[in-house]
Structures are given as C-alpha cells and as structure tokens.
Here is the input.
Amino acid sequence: MNLVLLGAPGAGKGTQASVLTKKFRIPHISTGDIFRAHMEAKTELGILAQSYISKGMLVPDEVTVSLVNRRLQEEDCRQGFLLDGFPRTLPQAEALDRFLLEQGRKLDFVINLMVDDRLVIGRLTKRRTCPVCHVSYHLDYAPPRQKNICDSCGATLIQRADDVEDVIRERLLAYHRQTEPLIQYYTQTGVIRNVEGNGSIEEVLQNTFAVLEVAE
Ligand code: AMP
Here is the structure.
C-alpha cells in the first residue's frame, strides 16, 4: 500500500500515521521527523532545515525531494510506504509522481485530513511530543499517564519550537498557499480520499478506515 497523508499542521497526520503503518505494515516516512533528527544531530541538512522550520517556512523543494527519493529507495519501502508531510507543494507532488512512475509504482490513496484552522492553534499549542519515539500528546485531550513523560518509552516530553502561536500561524499560511492546491491535483488523478478530521482521535480513525474501505 502506497499512501500519502495530506492535511494542515495539527490535522492529526502523525496520529493517523502511527495506526495506519501498523495496520498495513509499511514504514512511516515523516519529512518533519527526518529534518528534526538532522537538526538534533546538527548536520549540514539540519542547520539548513532549522533556518526555515523555525520561521514556519517550508524547506526548499530540491532538498526535500532528493531526501524523500533516497528514502523511498530503501529496502523497507518495497512493500509500500506512508508519506506523512510530503508532498507539501505542487513541484514536490509532481516529482513524486515522476519518481514512482520511473519505478513502475503509483500512489494508492492520498488521505486528506480536513480540519478548521481555529482548532489547529488549540491542538498545537498544547501538543507535547516525545523526542525519542515521536508519539504526540495533548495536554487536555490525550495527556501522558505521568506528567511530561512518554507512555511508550519513558523519555521526557518536549514542546516543539515551532508549536508556538506565531510560528503556527506562519505554518498555516504556508499550508494554505503551498499545500492546499494539492487537494485539486490529487482530486484530478482520483486518488484522494477526504476525511473529516475535526473529531476525536477515535472518530477520525474510524473515518479514515471507512474511506479506505478496510475494517479497523
Ligand atoms: P511537520 O513535522 O510535518 O509539521 O514538519 C515540520 C516542518 O518541517 C514544517 O513546518 C516544514 O518547515 C518542514 N517540512 C516538513 N515536511 C516538508 C516538506 N515536504 N516540504 C518542505 N518543508 C517540510
């Protein structure tokens, strides 16, 4: 199964991704996670990515496309993959189509998680993330069992530097300007499945399984 998760920041892509990748036994490829790992390791790519991410801007297409192309050629992607946060621009989507075509592959579904902007601010300012296993929590709706500690691996949770209101607003602007046109792009190719993303995690998961026509 070759999947893409599309949606605004805070739409719940990471949460849906963790369930879908287990269900279909495919690797979870989050460009945001890859950039953050490079930022942590202070690689050249990490330093470059940080200069964009800290402002809520998208990392340039050439950099992002070659990163994803390399990742998709790894062994674990042979049986499928789930892309979370890529593509985010039309040139990225076109590059992905070209890359898959060259390999005789194609996308099965693009899951478009639809959320209201005003919900996003509340979700992201109260989001806490595990820097080790990347699980996300919400201080009110999905808190960790022990304050500030990841349920899955015991690491101390962090607030991402880009989960502050000013940066979230910039990220939302980037989403509307650069990523939203992809809805039309994938509607034309017929692979898009629109999912109502404003509900609880459980409700959204049910909606996702319903559009994919698979049992939970
Ligand atoms: P995310 O964890 O998906 O919210 O991504 C965090 C940040 O990483 C984004 O706000 C962008 O600055 C950058 N980023 C992630 N994926 C992409 C992409 N496909 N294209 C450009 N920038 C990206």
In short: The longest strand covers residues 2-7. The longest helix spans residues 165-179.
